[in-house]
Amino acid sequence: MTRIPLNQAELANQGMKDRLEMSTAEIGLAVRTTNCLEEKGVFTVDDLLHCTREDLLSISNFGEKTLDEVYNALAQIGFHRPQMPR
Predict the structure, then answer these.
(1) Beta carbons within 8 Å of 38's beta carbon, 6+ residues apart
(2) Is residue 50 a part of any domain in this protein?
(3) How far is it, in rounded angstroms, from Cα 13 to Cα 1?
(4) How confident is the model at residue 86 (pLDDT cuts 50, 70, 90)?
(5) Which E.C. number(s) belong to this protein (predicted)?
(6) CATH, residue 49
(7) In this structure, are residues 56 and 70 in contact, taking their beta carbons and an 8 Å threshold?
């Protein structure tokens, strides 16, 4: 039996898809943070990436520290935010 190897682009695509489909609970957020996000309808990393900073800060009990927690968790799985101009 021969195996057809997947090319690197297909593997990278699948890896990206897997990360986007991760639940917010899977990326290491505190339970309180996950609950806040889920109350707002944010269940996956993909959902989270479609939220603006203002969207997140408008969630009840969601402040700057929680926002930093979210940004750090996203960075841990390879989603880094662009540097803000000074």
Answers:
(1) 24
(2) yes
(3) 26
(4) very low
(5) 2.7.7.6
(6) 1.10.150.20
(7) yes
Q: Sign of dihedral through CA atoms 69, 81, 35, 26?
A: negative
Residue whose token pair is 């957020």? 29
**Is position 5 within any domain?**
no
Across 26-84, the runs of DSSP E, i.e. the strands, are none
CB atoms within 10 A of CB 85: 4
Would you say residue 22 lies in a domain? yes
pLDDT tens across 48-85, in order? Answer: 999 999 999 999 999 999 999 999 999 999 888 776 54
Residue 68: which domain range? Answer: 16-76
Helix, coil or strand: residue 2? coil
The total of structural domains in the chain comes to 1
pTM for this entry: 0.78
